[in-house]
Write a structure and sequence with these properties.
Shape of chain B: elongated
Number of strands of chain B: 2
Strand content of chain B: under 5%
Radius of gyration of chain A: 22 Å
Helix content of chain B: 40-55%
Largest sheet of chain A: 2 strands, antiparallel
Shape of chain A: globular
Largest interface: A-B, 78 and 76 residues
Largest sheet of chain B: 2 strands, antiparallel
Low-confidence stretches of chain A: none
Number of helices of chain A: 16
Helix content of chain A: over 70%
Distance between the termini of chain A: 22 Å
Strand order of the largest sheet of chain B: 1-2
Structural class of chain A: mainly alpha
Radius of gyration of chain B: 22 Å
Strand order of the largest sheet of chain A: 1-4
Mean pLDDT of chain B: 97
Low-confidence stretches of chain B: none
Number of helices of chain B: 5
Number of strands of chain A: 4
Oligomer: heterodimer
Structural class of chain B: mainly alpha
Distance between the termini of chain B: 49 Å
Mean pLDDT of chain A: 97
Chain lengths: 461, 144
Amino acid sequence: MKYQSQVVAKPYFIAAIGLFIGQIVFGLVMGLQYVMGDFLFPEIPFNVARMVHTNLLIVWLLFGFMGSSYYLVPEESETELYSPKLAIGLFWVFLVAGALTIVGYLAVPYATLAEITGNDLLPTMGREFLEQPTITKIGIVIVALGFLFNIAMTVLKGRKTAVSLVLLTGLTGLALLFLFSFYNPSNLILDKMFWWWVVHLWVEGVWELILGSILAFVLIKTTGVDREVIEKWLYVIIAMTLITGIIGTGHHYYWIGTPEYWQVLGSVFSALEPIPFFMMTVFAFNMVNKRRREHPNKAAVLWALGTAVMAFLGAGVWGFLHTLAPVNYYTHGSQITAAHGHMAFYGAYVMIVLTMISYSMPLMRGRAAANSNKSQVLEMWSFWLMTVSMVFITLFLTGAGILQVYLQRYNSDPQPFMVVQEKIELFYWMREYAGLVFLTGLVLYVASFFIGGEERAEQTV
Amino acid sequence: MSGAFTKTMARNIFIGGSAFFIFLFLALSLDTVSALPDRDHRENITDQVVLGKKVWEDNNCIGCHSLMGEGAYFAPELANVYNRFGNSKEAIKAFISSRPRDGVPGRRSMPQFNLSEEELDGVVEFLKWTSEVNDANWPPNIQG
């Protein structure tokens, strides 16, 4: 750690990991509800568990992005953070707002939550992933603006690198696009169309800029490859991301009342969306192969390579699987979508945050370069357990999805939704078991933080 | 990447490419918005439909169901539920209002939302309106 103020990232990462645990617990609850329909009913109905699962994911990833930025930007800018106090203050605002929202989801019926938080005044609730009370959304905007201000001022007063500028571009896009969550017209079709400006343009747009710059930063630090080379790759990757991903939004405009030309545009451009992810994989492996130093933090390098591979598989390959309009006509809104969602979010965003945590946390805890070998071995076990179980979760959901699509939509005698759900139960059980393995991996991950000692500073090869 | 291809060139491709596609996307979005009235039949969005969408949101229906394929996959697709229930508003209302408070042992069950008659009418009108949107013939069949 080169600058004292980088340490503000630490509480952000701790909160992120804490919420991650909550996310996985509720994921297991939902997984069980898929096969034991009355589990926790009516206390925690499926919709509540799902809301907690997805919202915790979003919030902890945002904690992760913010922590990553607070760590990365001072080092890239070669200056202390503009205001560490603001960063700590916003941390508590965000944590309390997030916790209160989750408590609200669990403590009262959603309709009551909508009523007491004044959803009638400015209705924004009850839409997938944007379920937060309007007042929470306003809180998110305030936190995002304060955070952006802090980061931008730091970048402005220091050295400007491609890594920090791309990160800042991504974060600005994240904040601006979130404003569309306040647009909720009574016309469902318009609502849906612009809802995607938040959801798609986040995860298949600006978030990939954040992902790219964090990955570039960790690769610069761990491989010692020339910054010029890495930054050139970064620009090419994010150029391809936006060139394919913006019009790629069209793959969500096939069946929601929008014109048919989106079927052509969406198919063509979203079919190209795997390209930047493939480039990211080639990039990460190339840089590690050309490394000019052996960084003692092997776990961080593993996470970085894992991110590149899993993002390509989850977002790239599993996205392509159902993105062409004639295929999507049958697979839209099925377990295939769920399969893709799980591996894409894990591979791209969960793993990049864990990469950054893996790289920076030992340094923030006062170690010269890395955790002890023993700690790293445990962390790498957790990497493999979580990653392999996520592959299996994805495969089981894909199996469930293929059968669902065939039985309910494709064959000559289509069967009702619930009949089909019972027939594919086996796959849901298998998914739940894989989820338990994931939880085991997560427990080991947390445990790895409690193993002391450190590895000596890096050696040059 | 060869030496002839510099970081500045890569950056320019990023800026130029993004700017072009953002502009194209905005133009296409404008065209889509102007094409929508013929497809979504907004002239049929009555006060009841507006109320129905509000009830739909306030009870987080999307947390279990999908609507036009978007949402959760725990409960049936509802864009065509009006047709699936034989174009019967009463049947849909009866289904919603008869959900057992404590669920069904061992099975998935929709919660009892205690909707008023007015809210029930709104939800049904909202679902009927949704079923009439021109959505390129999705879902593929009546089962959703």
